[in-house]
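Same chain as my last thread, 243 residues:
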Amino acid sequence: MRSRVDLWILVGLFAFALAFLFGARWLGQQDRARYKLVPLPPWTSWEARLVSRLEILTPRFPHLAQWSSANGDAARAEAALKIEAADRAGRTADSVVDLAVLRLLQARAAEAVAVAKSGRAAFADDARIALVLGLASEAVSDLEGARREFEHAEALSRDDVDVLYRLGRLHLEADRPREARLYAERAVRVEPRHPEAQRLLARSCLATNDAGRAKRAYNDVLQLLPGDPAARDQLSVLDGSPR
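reply #2:
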């Protein structure tokens, strides 16, 4: 009788071990699937220029396409006149945003600040104006003012990936890595397919001495930008292998 009980115990332990192994394998597959990132759709040339010039993550100002995509100085001047005329015809939140961003793209940051500030007086609850004012404040080296504006934009429009990214960058550059990491983590949760959000997370994790999480973020950058030299070099350093 006892030998039969022992046999059933062995069978039960064996079944438990098999269930554990298959369960672990399944969970591992789910984890890998969860971290398989598909890159965002490609941008047009003007969208890429806009994102690069403003140092944000999304081409969120489509009305600026007429200026950004214009060929030649004369065409750009004509497109700019249309944006300026629309603002004069009847100031709206849209026209303020367009004109302020246009001034930023024209490297007229002080004028961008003035436009955005005048617009904020009329449209205090518009998160886009707060974001643009933050970008313009950074461009004139008013970093504290920029941080206040980005925080105001974040309060008005939570989980805006561009706002979270700019706040994370500001905190990292100000040597506040814990705060930077919090914003970077939120940006990645909102949109994990933005490689620069993943890169910011990796940098802030390194600054908070979390090499393991930094490696995951750099690997995610490489999923989204295969062969990216900066991410590849950082991973080589973290792995202790030659570049």
